[in-house]
UniProtKB/TrEMBL annotation:
The keyword Oxidoreductase does not apply. Keywords: Membrane, Transmembrane, Transmembrane helix. The keyword Repressor does not apply. It comes from the Bacteria. The chain crosses the membrane at residues 7-27, 33-52, 64-84, 104-123, 135-154, 185-207. This is DUF1361 domain-containing protein. It holds the Pfam family DUF1361. It comes from Dyadobacter sediminis.
Amino acid sequence: MEGLFSLLLLLLLSFVAVFFHLIRILFNSPVDFSMDWNLFLSWIPLIIAFFADNFTKRFGKIPVVLILLSVVWLAFFPNAPYMITDLAHLTVDYERDLTWHDVIMLFFYAEVSLFNGLVSLYWIHRSWRRIFNRVTSNSFLLASLPLAGFGVYLGRVRRMNSWDIIHDPQLILKNLLESAMDRTALVFSMEIGMLLGILYLVLWVIVRFRIRYNRKS
């Protein structure tokens, strides 16, 4: 299946991130297993996008199925860039060995999680392009970026998570309405969206250049 190599590579990187965490545990220091949980959550949109990409390639235009998959993907997509905000937990002590280990460890977790999100965005965008026209698919792409940032805000500041959509939709609605009027939430959403957009653009250019180069070869 297309994309299987990418999944295996990202899985290997995830194991490397966990290895950094195991080293931290060997120091007999307090650890936060929420990092591993957050990394796992970043895999959910990746798996959904992987399925959507292969489904649309094999079965063609079934827009209803893709829309349903896209909604579920969008609900979990913010979990990927969310780990960037875990860098806020760093405590700086330049003479402490664990400070530098924690910097590398948290950065690696955030990096792998972000990779998962960007690859999932590429796959779901490619699925949209197969089913919808260019304007519609690119509109979905542009809308998903600040929405992802808004989801990160809800998770970090409002302490919400994707599962609340199922077991506490009223609380989700309450936080949505309150956050929509919060300037910090809007600025945060746009900046995370801009960060994702720039990184995705780099990924897109690299992938498209590789495809064109292989065709010429």
